[in-house]
């Protein structure tokens, strides 16, 4: 069995099992993203619709949390790298961020109607780099503070940034007004950095991570449910909605209203949304770590998922390119009449097969190898 990209990248002596669990979580995030992009429409209802609805927003949040974890794999998990090694590690992360900033618009140009998140991830990487020396407790406090404060800044950005300038417009798009504004996605990345600082080698810490995630998710979504139902002044349509946990079907006119702060649905950009999705990501991550430790024979069964999780950027690029090809070359509109379960299954099988076969020959996915070699240019810095 070939080594995964994450295992190959480990430089701090981390246990292989723990990193396989990270790859498993990443693979599940990839499949969740596929479900959100090409799976059945959640509005169709039923069990399948509800399962599809669970993937919306939460998969991208899990990706962001795992991205923060990966940043500390590069800059030092148990102890931050210092001196020349520290400067080179920071440069590697910065180069990766710049590559994502360039790759995002390229994939957007393929015109798949998918809101490509890569450039926003790149911005988040650059924003959190100064924090890589902080402890787990400090990172946890910063993640909590940014999750509570930054959404309020975003909802009032029109008055805070009340000026017109073509020079600042691109910056504002990435920071506060885009589809995945960094101002509300940075908390996910910082939370991932905090998790990476923990000693996840012990089952007790993994259980704490999972139970803590469940507690955060339940409290956040529970508070949203109670507030939307009981607080005065909440519009009747919002009271009757499922926006305490779902992001399907809300009108944009409700965003920014006084009642919107109590919404916890993914992609809503509220504090409760960020906390709830972070809690879900913590639970999934802890479950994957515990499963790989308690059920070693399970690894063979889920190896295709782990293989996909070892090359998440490749899996992301492949599905965007495939969707563009089907739409513009073959003429199949995956969104025309509601995507089918068979389409989702086809994407999962094809990408999983590619990942398994590729790792029989190479240690890293093609995009991961490319971005890795580019980031290795940091070794030449003085």
What features would you describe in this structure?
- Mean pLDDT is 87; it is low at 1-18.
- Helix 5 (83-109) runs antiparallel to helix 6 (118-128).
- The protein has 18 helices and no strands.
- Helix content is 68%, strand content 0%.
- The chain has one domain (5-380).
- With 382 residues, it is an all-alpha fold.
- The relative contact order is 0.16.
Helix and strand topology:
Layout: H1 5-9, H2 16-38, H3 46-55, H4 58-75, H5 83-109, H6 118-128, H7 136-155, H8 157-160, H9 169-177, H10 182-197, H11 203-230, H12 236-239, H13 271-294, H14 298-301, H15 303-309, H16 312-330, H17 341-359, H18 366-375
SSE pattern, N- to C-terminal: HHHHHHHHHHHHHHHHHH
Sheet bearing the most strands, described? Answer: none
Which structural category do the helix and sheet elements fall into? mainly alpha
Helix content: 55-70%
Query: Approximately how much beta-strand content do the residues carry?
Result: under 5%
The structural domain count equals: 1
